[in-house]
Amino acid sequence: MKIKPKQYAQTLFEITNEASKDQVDAAVEGFVGLVAKKGDLKQWPMIIEYFVKIYNKTNKIAEIRVNSKNKLTTSHLNSLEEKLKKLVIFEGYKDFKFIENTNHDLIGGVKIEFEDQVIDTSLKSRVEQLKIKMSQN
Fold first, then answer.
1. What angle do CA 5, 7, 12 make, to 5 degrees?
2. What order do you get walking across the sheet with 117-120 strand by strand?
3. End of a domain among 57, 83, 99?
4. Are 66 and 58 contacting, i.e. CB atoms less than 8 angstroms apart?
5. pLDDT at 14
6. Both 89 and 125 in a single domain?
7. In sequence order, what E strands does 1-137 have?
8. Are residues 65 and 115 in the same domain?
9. How far apart, in whole angstroms, are the C-alpha atoms of residue 21 and residue 18?
10. Facing residues of 112 across strands?
11. Which pTM value belongs to this model?
């Protein structure tokens, strides 16, 4: 039976979750050896991607992609975090991890992605919404 990346990731999480650093190092080394022995090293990037998702979900960390025209300052990110904490979709999360992407096609504002949710406050999106409203009248 072929082991899927998500199954590997869950196993890796379970063997490292409450282990000390030395135990984690040994467990990961053994785990990588097992994955290699099974001929599944090509799945490693997906295994790590799933592992991070499992880790974040377990530890109540919201991994949020933020697209903006320019890199946001720490002050902007802190302000954004405070606003996001008030939204229902982030209820129960203890920490926020921002992954920033600069998109020079954006005129202003930000586009936020979390799991399958998108919050688009970009100027481009607002102009498109205004165009739709005007065409309906």
1. 95
2. 95-102, 61-68, 110-114, 117-120
3. 57
4. no
5. 96
6. yes
7. 61-68, 95-102, 110-114, 117-120
8. yes
9. 10
10. 66, 119
11. 0.75
